[in-house]
Amino acid sequence: MSLMTKEASETVEAGAPAPRSIRGTPTSAPVVKPTAAVTAATRIKIQDINAFYGEKQALFGVNLEIPDNAVTAFIGASGCGKSTLLRCLNRMNDTIPGARVEGRILMDGIDVNGTEIDPVQVRTRIGMVFQKPNPFPISIYENIAYGPRTHKLTSSKAELDEIVERSLRRAALWDEVKDRLGKPGLGLSGGQQQRLVIARALAVSPAVILMDEPCSALDPIATAHIEALLDELRKHTCIVMVTHSMAQAARVSQVTAFFHMGKLIESGPTDQIFTMPKVEQTHDYITGRFG
Amino acid sequence: MTTPAAHRPLIGARRMHLGDTTFRISLFAAGALVIIVLFSILAIMFAGGKLAFDTFGLGFITGTEWNPVTQIYGALPAITGTLMTAILALLIAWPIGFGIAFFLTETCPVKLRGPLGVAVELLAAIPSIVYGMWGFFVLAPFMAEYVQPWLTSTFIWIPPIPDTFYWFTAPPIGVGLITASLILAIMILPFIAATTRDVLLSTPQLLKDGAYAMGATRWEALTGVVIPAVRGSLFGAVFLGLGRALGETMAVVFVIGNAIRMPDSLMAPSATIASVVANSFPEAEPGTLDLAVLLALGFILFVVSFGVLAIARLLLRQERMS
Questions:
Q1: CATH number, domain with residue B177
Q2: What is the DSSP string of B198-233?
Q3: In terms of CA atoms, which chain B residue is nearest residue A201?
């Protein structure tokens, strides 16, 4: 089985037993409140993931279900494996020499981590936003058009224009850049650049967007922009975010997973994790008494 | 009696920092030295070659005849040979050098990366006289025996420019433009490869990750994102190679054939500015037109190389602006 085309994966989705909301149809998308998050359909099932960088094991038997139409936050101290797990989800670890990932990551019934799966195809369905904004050294327009062009989603200029505008609108950047689409993406401010790369990811209509500390290089105002955006985006996508800011996790996520030393310690609805964690380690971490 | 640090006045005579001053002056001297050396060389070359420019005027550059017996000197054959060998060498070395660099940075197994990188750099460490001897004793006979007959029969269809240029149709004598270009290509290859590799390695991983995360293949990431990001520096790598090819002397003297006349094919024996100077210098007496001509040639080579660098800079600047 492979993620060759969107159609192919939709077929598999239809055969998948797990109940799930239909992405993109607002009527069937549940209104996700923090407490409702757990009832949302599961988008990704992470099963027994072990990850290695050479000899060093970075993740130990992680099991986790990630809901659709919600923001899932991975929290934990540096080096706890949260970024590694995030990079497992779109096979970015494949680009690191010596990295090895064991286990299954089921999305729509397909094991994304399977050896027969083409990582390049996975990444067209699972977008990613990085710690620092990384616009390509081309124009704003071309940045957004990069994905649709690379994957030949459209051949008409009008349609491409439409995709660019829609993506920029969804990333709440359109009004700020509509008069200078031909200008270099690198000429934007940091916060605008980060919204640009979010728009770039959105342009190929991914089912999942991964964010690796998306606000760590931004000022508080730009951070507020991105956080507001996340709340909007999750209506139609599944968002997984790594964050160092506990306040941010509490503000924007519906589900939180806490990692320590490569192990998943606890996961659950965000308000429960932050108000009455079941594990003492989680409690210590979120209250700042970590050690 | 010393004042405690806390009570030392902030305002007062600024102390002379002797170390700092000396340091600053020596740095300035180092910078000034470059300028002084550059301009004094240029001035001396021009002064020495002035007799040639006075005698022949602009005809020195456009003249096609070079005859020490009749004392008629035209530099166009040498200039043509220089430009043709350098550009041909670049055309051969550019794709291979980029290929090596891309292989080293993208697809090469990690274990092979180090040794192969060192091997490429060692290529640059071979003295040019060694390249020259190898070219004369190994490459030239090989070219005459196999490559040149093959080139002639393969490209016979290219229409010649009658009485001027016959491309690959020429007697296979081994030495000549194309052999010199090949040697030059091998010599500048490590520079292009090493510089390109360093440029590619300096591309932020974050940028490449961004392309991969968009579902780009290695090839798509390279052509769509990495190369646009470093295009300017890549041109720099190429022009560095061109600059070296223009001035290279020893290896070329061995294999170019040293015939100071307009080349009538890509395989014709020819000469470059550097090879003419190297061949004729021992016989040129001080104060004669013979020596002035050589110094004037040196001046021209200087100007040509400088022009190449200037063009490279201009390209880079446009790159940065757009």
A1: 1.10.3720.10
A2: HHHHTS-HHHHHHHHHTT--HHHHIIIIIHHHHHHH
A3: B214
A135 interaction partners in chain B (CB closer than 8 Å) = 210
Is the pLDDT at A64 greater than 90? The verdict is yes
In a domain, B15, yes or no: no
Q: Per the domain annotation, does B102 fall within a domain?
A: yes
Tell me the C-alpha distance between A114 and A2, whole Å: 9
**B209–A127: do the CB atoms touch at under 8 Å?**
no
φ and ψ at residue B166, rounded to 5 degrees: -115, 20
Q: Where are the domains of chain A?
A: 6-21+38-135+207-286
Residue B25 maps to a domain: no
Enter the ipTM: 0.80
Q: In whole angstroms, give the CA distance from residue A82 to residue A245.
A: 13
Q: What is the mean pLDDT of residues B89-116?
A: 90
Kindly determine whether residue B224 and residue A150, on different chains, have CB atoms separated by under 8 Å: yes
Residue-range definition of the domain harbouring residue B306 = 59-321
Q: What is the predicted pLDDT for the residue at B213?
A: 93
Q: Which CATH superfamily is domain A6-21+38-135+207-286 in?
A: P-loop containing nucleotide triphosphate hydrolases (3.40.50.300)
Question: Could A201 and B220 be called an inter-chain contact, meaning their C-beta atoms sit closer than 8 Å?
Answer: no
Contact between B214 and A201 using a beta-carbon 8 Å cutoff:
yes
CB contact under 8 A, B213 and A128: yes
| A contact test, residue of B214, B217, B321 with most A CBs within 10 A | B214
Q: Is B210 on the interface with A (CB under 8 A)?
A: yes
pLDDT on residue B266: 92
Average pLDDT over residues B42-63: 92
pLDDT greater than 60 at residue A22: no
Number of domains in chain B: 1
> Is B51 inside any structural domain?
no
DSSP state of A34: G
Q: What are phi and psi of A287, to 5 degrees?
A: -95, 0
CA-nearest of B136, B90, B81 to B264 is B81
Nearest CA in chain B to A87: B213
